[in-house]
Amino acid sequence: MISFFVCLAILIIGFMLYSKVAEKVFGPDDRKPPALSMTDGSDYVPMGTPRIFLIQLLNIAGLGPIFGALAGACWGPSVFLWITFGTLLGGGVHDYMVGMMSMRHKGASVSELTGTYLGNAMKQVMRVFSVVLLVLVGVSFSTGPANLLAMLTPNVLDAKFWLAVVLIYYFIATFVPIDKVIGKIYPIFGICLIVMALGVGGAIILGGYHIPEITLSNLHPSGTPIWPTMFISVACGAISGFHATQSPLMARCLTNEKDGRKVFYGAMVAEGVIALIWAAAGVAFYNGTGGLLEALGNGQSSVVYEICFKLLGPVGAVIAMIGVIACPISSADTAYRSARLTLADWFKIDQKLIKNRLILTIPLLAVGAVLTQVDVQVVWRYFSWSNQTLAMIALWAASVYLFRRKRIYWLTALPATFMSAVSCTYILMAKEGFQLSTAIAYPIGIIFAAVCLGTFVFTCVMGKGKNADRPAVEEPYAV
């Protein structure tokens, strides 16, 4: 249990210290943000910082830090280290830089930011990549809540009925102004997510459950390698490319750049704390990785429900059901909203007009509805890899941004290099990838990461690339 509390302390102290390092490197100022200079009543809507923090937390989290942490805990308490340092050195920096870069570029989506700093070819790749990723998120978090709602209601209200209801809600949340639905109910569900984690953590500690100490040994019952599978499985609990698609939503609503550290970095650390609690709860509640893996065989939602119900009683069961239904829905609707805005940036379609929002929203939801008929597990496996690959690309874009502004680019270049190795190695080994042995995948992954770092150094630091010393393109200071 000591290891758990040490990691928790590192997360909290790390936020107070390292987030300020990231803030100093970026250099927020008093310029007029897009929420105030481009207010449109739809997506650019000024909101208070506490509300934005809770919305950002729910946007980036959903069930990610719960499901991912439980999956990662199957390797044992070594996952505590990845959640802790991945959050502080990778995820927090990633979310903060993308959010702040978006504020400096009129609330631009991650694909447009990538194009600005990694070139037009990468912009086209990221446009397609991010839209596909976002639709996959929407699809993945449609059928699960529908099935759970069907279990809790009369038989006449089956899963197909609830799926239709969920998709209709997605249409509404994607289409209407951000402060009308998301801005009103998300802060409530964000608080529920925090309360659920604190309740579970407190019950584990006070209930006398044993949280094992950190060991670097691989405790996965199936012997699945820690590298890179655990790093991919935890995802949102440490670093997630999905967050790069969500941070621009709040970058269009934040009224002061200097609050970016609390919102973007702070929400990621809060998510890391939630992930750490659930990872500890998983191995403690099921008395080890073997019991946890066996329980996960019945579905992650059932594990969440069992833990909450047995630890917190009927109240916990209600909170758990709110979590496993509302949280995935909240992730999916903002995913579709981000997809709409990415397409709007791509095709330069003004979203002030209702008809323009409909032009993008209807096809997106139609494609999502069709894809719900595909096996969600297959969809999720591809999401896991593409999610971390997007994080890798976003970090490289941030590195070029910092270089051009003559800032300490190693803050993002080092985690970008690490995630390059993770992403490449995983797709070489994975079932949905090339299924190569570790003897082949490991060295190729390391070489790929080295090549990415070498390319960055050669084209930017050594000034050999075209327009390598071109200054960053930002919004001018407010007059």
TrEMBL record:
<keyword id="KW-1003">Cell membrane</keyword>
<comment type="similarity">
    <text>Belongs to the peptide transporter carbon starvation (CstA) (TC 2.A.114) family.</text>
</comment>
<feature type="transmembrane region" description="Helical">
    <location>
        <begin position="263"/>
        <end position="286"/>
    </location>
</feature>
<dbReference type="GO" id="GO:0005886">
    <property type="term" value="C:plasma membrane"/>
</dbReference>
<feature type="transmembrane region" description="Helical">
    <location>
        <begin position="226"/>
        <end position="242"/>
    </location>
</feature>
<feature type="transmembrane region" description="Helical">
    <location>
        <begin position="357"/>
        <end position="376"/>
    </location>
</feature>
<protein>
    <recommendedName>
        <fullName>CstA N-terminal domain-containing protein</fullName>
    </recommendedName>
</protein>
<dbReference type="InterPro" id="IPR003706">
    <property type="entry name" value="CstA_N"/>
</dbReference>
<keyword id="KW-1133">Transmembrane helix</keyword>
<feature type="domain" description="CstA N-terminal">
    <location>
        <begin position="157"/>
        <end position="277"/>
    </location>
</feature>
<keyword id="KW-0472">Membrane</keyword>
<keyword id="KW-0812">Transmembrane</keyword>
<feature type="transmembrane region" description="Helical">
    <location>
        <begin position="311"/>
        <end position="336"/>
    </location>
</feature>
<feature type="transmembrane region" description="Helical">
    <location>
        <begin position="440"/>
        <end position="461"/>
    </location>
</feature>
<dbReference type="GO" id="GO:0009267">
    <property type="term" value="P:cellular response to starvation"/>
</dbReference>
<dbReference type="Pfam" id="PF02554">
    <property type="entry name" value="CstA"/>
</dbReference>
<feature type="domain" description="CstA N-terminal">
    <location>
        <begin position="293"/>
        <end position="424"/>
    </location>
</feature>
<feature type="transmembrane region" description="Helical">
    <location>
        <begin position="161"/>
        <end position="178"/>
    </location>
</feature>
<feature type="domain" description="CstA N-terminal">
    <location>
        <begin position="4"/>
        <end position="142"/>
    </location>
</feature>
<feature type="transmembrane region" description="Helical">
    <location>
        <begin position="382"/>
        <end position="403"/>
    </location>
</feature>
<dbReference type="InterPro" id="IPR051605">
    <property type="entry name" value="CstA"/>
</dbReference>
<feature type="transmembrane region" description="Helical">
    <location>
        <begin position="185"/>
        <end position="206"/>
    </location>
</feature>
<feature type="transmembrane region" description="Helical">
    <location>
        <begin position="79"/>
        <end position="98"/>
    </location>
</feature>
<feature type="transmembrane region" description="Helical">
    <location>
        <begin position="128"/>
        <end position="149"/>
    </location>
</feature>
<feature type="transmembrane region" description="Helical">
    <location>
        <begin position="408"/>
        <end position="428"/>
    </location>
</feature>
